[in-house]
Automatic annotation (TrEMBL):
GO cellular component: protein-DNA complex
GO molecular function: DNA binding; DNA-binding transcription factor activity
Keywords carried by this UniProt record: DNA-binding, Transcription, Transcription regulation
PANTHER family: HCA OPERON TRANSCRIPTIONAL ACTIVATOR HCAR, TRANSCRIPTIONAL DUAL REGULATOR HCAR-RELATED
Similarity field: Belongs to the LysR transcriptional regulatory family.
Keyword Protein biosynthesis part of the UniProt annotation: no
Protein name according to UniProt: DNA-binding transcriptional LysR family regulator
HTH lysR-type domain residues: 1-58
PROSITE patterns (alphabetical): HTH_LYSR
Amino acid sequence: MNLHHLEAFLAVAEELHFGRAAERLHMAQPPLTRAIKQLERDLGAQLFVRTTRSVHLTTAGQALIGPANDVLEGCRVARSAVRSAGRGETGLVRLGFAGPSSHLLVGDLSRLVRQRRPGIELRLRSTTYANEALRSVIDGELDLALVRWSVRPPEIAQRVVAEEHYVLVVPEHHRLAERETVSIAECRDEPFVALPAAPGSIVRETFIRAAYEAGFSPDIVQVASDSWTLMALVGAGVGLSFTLDTAVANVPRDRIRLVRLAEEFTPSYARLAWRRDAVSPALREVLLASEEALPTPEHLVGVEVP
């Protein structure tokens, strides 16, 4: 039994005439008759009662109409799904990101993908550090990630979507809270709260290096697993936090103040990263949507950012 046999059966069942059914299927009548006989042999049942004047369905033939339609409709759905996937209209794209600094970017991209390509599922995965998401893209566990890096992996393609700046966050009544700028050296005797030490913790590594260059080893009195907790600890007066302006912008700012740093730190850049050899049509469509949802900052268009 194959699909052509079922199509032939349904045509005869609806027309109750072999000649008209053959015309409908754009075929000669003898091959149609052979197809019906083959289907009857395969099923072990007679499907039609034929006389010189009429054709009627048997009980077995009547029972086959529903399942035959279901099979053919399932095949039509399968063909449509495959064509849609090939055009990037449907599919799965796994997107990784780290921390609140990425949340607005993820939200803007998700909204536009939903509007443009509702058949694409954007599956989100949050990590503590962007380096974890980047490693998952390299390993093929994610298709796309919002990342930051100090060295670009050769197998990764990327586009800058945001420029970020390092800032100091202090309790609202701290002695530095009303300052417009402050240097790292002025904080040598202050306690700090920070994210855990781990490979790829670019913000923490930048902070430690800046403190060493200012002549001191920072006193990290409390480690927290995420930026929300860090800001709560700062608000409670546990310590200061060296972080990114985008991270502070996306968390509650009760009882804290943001102060610009006097040092001219090289900005951090948030990037969309994906494998150079990626061939997914759905990923292609998400990347196209990202160019509108998350455009490269104007002053960085055409600029080679390390």
